[in-house]
Design goal:
Blueprint: H1 2-21, E1 40-46, E2 51-55, H2 69-73, E3 77-79, E4 87-89, E5 118-122, E6 126-135, E7 141-151, E8 156-167, E9 176-188, E10 192-207, H3 215-218, E11 238-262, E12 266-290, E13 312-329, E14 340-362, E15 368-390, E16 396-408, E17 414-424, E18 431-442, H4 446-449, E19 450-452, E20 457-459, E21 465-476, E22 481-491, E23 494-496, E24 502-504, E25 508-521, E26 526-537, E27 548-560, E28 564-575, E29 582-584, E30 589-591, E31 603-612, E32 615-622, E33 634-636, E34 639-640, E35 645-654
Antiparallel strand pairs: 1-2, 1-5, 3-4, 6-7, 6-35, 7-8, 8-9, 9-10, 10-11, 11-12, 12-13, 13-14, 14-15, 15-16, 16-17, 17-18, 18-21, 19-20, 21-22, 22-25, 23-24, 25-26, 26-27, 27-28, 28-31, 29-30, 31-32, 32-35, 33-34
């Protein structure tokens, strides 16, 4: 189905492009021909939709073969193996946790979020079609994406995007079907600016609970299984399904203008202040079910049954409604102190629905009847905050802000943060030194304190977390160098324990680490991009991290016939052995385990990238060393990585 949709849309886009690029209509000899050059600008809205953070449109050839988004965001990850499956970054700076819905956490690396949503402004219509596939056909993996955006006029842009991932998985009952649809509009006026986005995301994941016996992978000669899909797994009819509806609308109005002079003669108007408003809606419905629960009753794979002893259908709903109002005194106006001031007020309403304990009553015939109940709770919070900032300037930029919870269940929560950037040098050695710090007091979410499902029932009052993160580093863009160090002190950290129940560390957990990225080049076309992290955690149960993580891409680059850019090389991915977090499918959470360490295994993936005008393509032999290397290639216990797989992808841009 994905292949058919991709072919139809590619044909449509090709024909549209052909018409746009064809012979122009005949005009009068005196008519002047005007050519509009392709131009696409893209950005994310950050700082509660007050700042447009420019992002690069994905047209780069280098690392195009990294098709799984989790490896673009983190140098180290744990996953259940399939594209679109639940995952957890194990590189500490990449770890994020949702502040309302803990059942988002294992999907956050692949979910669209308001701060990661991309807006566009184009001089000509822009479209992109992307298709990726992994074989063998019987266990295929396919991904298709179609994006279209154009400006109605120079101020108003509209667009839409559709993503579809269908991965059967190399092992039984491990399919992941993910679909996303989004629409957006952005307006850039003289005094009024607005960004609006609606996006729908659906994740349906078959949960096999891992293979029954890890020794089948480690000692294949002792077992009689020809293919990966023949290996028995824990569950054959378990599924997780999460559907999420999101709407975000951010707009701003410039207030008052003064005239400033740049140099001797250039005059321009500067807004005295800007008022902002951001509205966010996040509504999700999450199910976990097993149709034939009774078949697993004697295996002790599940905790006690609280709701229905014959069938699992855990059902939970979550909704967030948020309004943020901000007033910013712009630093361009403040010529005396040369910094800006921002004040804001946020109100959040979080609504939770989840299963309550089932009771048993007797009907008229004396038969037991299960009576189902639902929990519902609203939580309202109000935050106040402010920030001092200097974001304009070539050499020095800084920010300092604080946010206080003034009302609601989390009253007393605090977040204080600061950031400093100092740039010096010139041309090739232009260097930026940066440092940032963040201190936070955070109340646990509702579902961390109380939750009931078919197999779990907990009720506790966890204390407020205390977190201090400090990091710093340097960037030398012209030399392709990026180095950073990070430290975190966690007190009373809340995490899911090995039994699947949220617990709290009573004392301090300390994390230290170093990260570096360097792109080496040579005059004869050899390149090497290396990303490496060295990190240490004082408690692997609270925050499990490998001591060493490495991702390297080495390739030779050449442009054939002056038009066909070609990269031929290989990727290497490695992390040291450690007690990787195990996956709990009933809660869709990663939990600590001490059964055995995994890791210490390198993945070798030869590939070839090609770029011809508007088309990029890659061919990749993923995990080819599985044909001759060690068999201890587990992502975590009971979840081996996929065997040797051939993958290819095509990305086609249209600017007309």
């Amino acid at each position: 189905m994905i292949r058919k949709i991709a072919m139809v849309l590619m044909c449509i886009a090709t024909s549209m492009g052909a018409r746009a690029q064809g012979r122009p209509e005949k005009t009068e000899p005196t008519a002047k021909k005007t050519t509009i050059l392709p131009h696409v600008r893209a950005w994310n809205m950050v700082d509660d939709y007050t700042t447009a953070d420019t992002v690069v449109v994905d047209t780069i050839v280098a690392e195009h073969q990294i098709h799984n988004p989790i490896w673009r965001r983190s140098v180290s990850n744990v996953s259940t193996g399939n594209l679109g499956a639940p995952s957890l970054p194990t590189f500490y700076p990449a770890i994020v946790r949702d502040r309302g819905n803990v059942f988002y956490n294992s999907l956050l690396p692949i979910m669209t979020r308001p701060e990661t949503f991309t807006f566009y402004n184009t001089a000509t219509p822009y479209a992109n079609l992307t298709y990726q596939k992994g074989i063998p056909k019987r266990r295929r993996e396919e991904f298709f994406s179609a994006l279209f955006t154009q400006n109605v006029n120079k101020r108003l842009n509209i667009g839409m995007r559709f993503d579809l991932n269908a991965a059967i998985g190399r092992y039984l009952n491990s399919a992941a079907d993910n679909s996303k649809f989004s629409m957006w509009a952005s307006y850039e006026g003289e005094v009024y600016h607005a960004q609006m986005a609606f996006y729908y995301q659906k994740f349906q994941i078959e949960e096999n609970g891992g293979i029954l016996n890890d020794n089948i992978i480690m000692y294949p000669d002792s077992f009689d299984y020809d293919k990966a899909e023949d290996i028995p797994v824990q569950f054959m009819d378990a599924k997780n399904r999460l559907a999420s509806y999101n709407f975000v609308y951010g707009h701003s109005l410039d207030i008052g203008f003064v005239t400033r002079t740049e140099g001797d003669s250039v005059e321009y108007d500067v807004p005295v202040a800007t008022a902002y408003h951001k509205f966010t809606m996040d509504r999700s419905h999450h199910d976990f079910w097993i149709d034939n629960l009774s078949t697993y009753a004697e295996t002790n794979l599940f905790p006690l049954v609280y709701l229905d002893p014959t069938r699992t259908h855990d059902d939970r709903k979550y909704m967030l409604l948020s309004n943020t109002f901000q007033l910013k005194l712009n630093e361009e106006f403040n010529q005396l102190l040369r910094f800006g001031v921002k004040l804001y007020l946020t109100n959040e309403i979080k609504q939770y629905y989840w299963d309550a304990l089932t009771t048993v009553e007797q009907d008229e015939d004396g038969e037991d009847v299960l009576i189902y109940h639902r929990n519902k709770e609203n939580r309202v919070s109000t935050y106040m905050g402010g920030q001092l900032f200097k974001n304009i300037g070539e050499n020095l930029r800084w920010q300092a802000g604080i946010r206080l919870s003034m009302q609601g269940y989390d009253v007393g929560d605090v977040n204080a943060n600061g950031k400093l950037e100092l740039t010096f040098g010139s041309e090739r050695w232009r260097t930026t030194l940066w440092g940032k710090a963040n201190f936070e007091l955070r109340s646990p979410t509702l579902w961390e304190n109380r939750y009931t499902s078919n197999h779990y029932d907990w009720s506790t009052e966890l204390d407020r977390e205390q977190t201090l993160d400090i990091s710093g580093g340097l960037r030398v863009p012209e030399m392709n160098i990026d180095v950073s160090v990070f430290s975190s002190t966690l007190n009373k950290r809340v995490y899911f324990g090995s039994d699947g129940v949220p617990t709290q560390k009573s004392d301090v957990t300390q994390i230290l680490g170093v990260y570096g990225r360097k792109h080496f080049t040579s005059k004869i076309g050899f390149n090497s991009i290396i990303r490496v992290a060295v990190q240490k955690t004082s408690d692997n149960d609270v925050v499990p991290l490998p001591k060493l993580a490495l991702y390297s891409s080495c390739y030779w680059e050449h442009k054939f016939f002056g038009v066909l850019l070609t990269q031929i090389g290989f990727d290497v991915h490695y992390n040291s052995k450690y007690y990787t977090p195990a996956y709990n499918p009933m809660l869709m959470q990663y939990v600590p385990q001490s059964e055995r360490k995994t890791g210490g295994y390198g993945y070798f993936d030869p590939y070839a990238n090609f770029h011809l005008r508007k088309i990029r393509a890659y061919f990749k032999d993923e995990h080819i060393n599985n044909l001759w290397g060690s068999n201890d290639h587990f992502l975590t216990i009971h979840y081996p990585s996929n065997p040797h797989t051939f993958k290819f992808g095509l990305s086609w841009n249209f600017y007309d």
